Amino acid sequence: METLSTRPESIDEIGEANIKHGELQAKKPDILPLFQEAEEKNRLLRSVAGGGLDTISMLRAKWDKFELMMESHQLMIQEQVEVMKSNAESRIKVYLQDLEKFKARWDQLKPNDDIIESGDQDALQKCVQTIKDKKMEFGELENTRKKLVEDCRHFDLEEPDLSLAHEIVKDIEEFSEMWSLYEEFQEGLLEKTKEDWITFRSKTYMFEEFLFMWQDKLRKLEEHSTMSVKLHKEIDKYKMVVPVLKYVRGEHLSQDHWLDLFRLLGLPRGSTLEKLVFGDLLRVTDMIVEKATELKDLNNRAQAEVTIREALRELDLWGIGALFSLTDYVDSQSRTIKLIKDWKDIVNQVGDNRCLLQSLKDSPYYKGFEDKVSIWETKLADLDEYLHNLNATQRKWVYLEPIFGRGALPREQARFKRVDEDFR
């Protein structure tokens, strides 16, 4: 009864109502004999017992109402169809008005070529979001259009001119495809830009592979657009910086060198190697290419300074750890004394270190280490003189000690004894 009394509000509900009506109509022949039999038994009960069941009378009223509703169902459906047909016509008018409004706003707000060519990343990202929002908004209009087309076919109404909707669909799809290309490229690029430079500087080949992959992808496009041209230019710009990235790797750069590099590239004040990411360098690609010569000089200076610093550090270590090679010598009095041997090795080491210092002085970046080199020059020059004197003294002592030890030259004994004590 409730189903028959409910007015359907849509085509689907009309279909469900007709199905329900058909089911009830099919069951009616089976239920009617049962109802008639119940009435006959109730009349018999009244004649025999003087009273029957009141519920049978109530059931009779409901049955009559049910038959009446069954008969009037199709009439009610037809009336409702007319109402829905009228509603469909008015909904078509509203839809067409909304479609025209959307077209006007879309034509005004859709990204133009000037924005693409500007290269403003923030503006380009907003354009991506705008297209997504408009596509979602138009999706709701498309759902309305499909329902209206179904209604027109069901009610035998003439379908409205939907060429404008098809035109908008085509335009949005073209823009969506074009800008999805940009979004995909940016997502891949963004993944690389987040890498910290200390880790990524040895993996720049991954960035180069990314560029080649996209260059190949763009080359295979059937139709080129302003966006594909822009991406081609951006890839070419990044390909130009790839060979120069070796000058900003900075394995040999000291803290001062990094500050010079940041200043050279125009990176913000307060930039540090610890916080530097690949994206910071990509934002100054033009400066990296422009300052390639200065960056190369900076790297050469850093490498040379590292070499000088390591050489001086090796000298410090040699100065601390260098020892004479000693040997036992038994004098004429059968006493054992330590004498220096392998003079040639120690003198050669001193000579090599002096040559090393001279080569450091030939470096164009020697100026910053001049004081330390001068100190070592003085030390090694003095040491060279002392070694030659000590070597001459030891050789003379070894020659004279046996002579004086046997008592020769008694007049010089006292003098040699003083020298001998000092030497020992």
Question: Strands, helices and their partners?
Answer:
Layout: H1 2-5, H2 11-49, H3 54-109, H4 113-118, H5 121-154, H6 163-193, H7 197-200, H8 204-219, H9 226-241, H10 255-265, H11 278-282, H12 285-290, H13 292-321, E1 325-330, E2 336-341, H14 343-361, H15 370-405, H16 413-423
Antiparallel strand pairs: 1-2
Helix pairs in contact: 2-3, 3-5, 5-6, 8-9, 10-13, 14-15, 15-16
Tell me about this structure.
With 424 residues, the chain is an all-alpha fold. Helix content is 76%, strand content 3%. The protein is built from 16 helices and 2 strands. It has helices at 2-5, 11-49, 54-109, 113-118, 121-154, 163-193, 197-200, 204-219, 226-241, 255-265, 278-282, 285-290, 292-321, 343-361, 370-405, 413-423, and strands spanning 325-330, 336-341. It has a two-stranded antiparallel ribbon with strand order 1-2. A hairpin with a 5-residue loop joins strand 1 (325-330) and strand 2 (336-341). The chain is elongated.
Summarize it.
It is built from 16 helices and two strands. It has 424 residues and is mainly alpha-helical.
Encode the helix/strand succession as letters. Answer: HHHHHHHHHHHHHEEHHH
Oligomer: single chain
Contiguous low-pLDDT stretches (5 residues minimum) are none
Strand order of the largest sheet: 1-2
Structural class by SSE content: mainly alpha
Measured distance between first and last alpha carbons: 133 Å
Kindly report the average pLDDT value.
Answer: 81
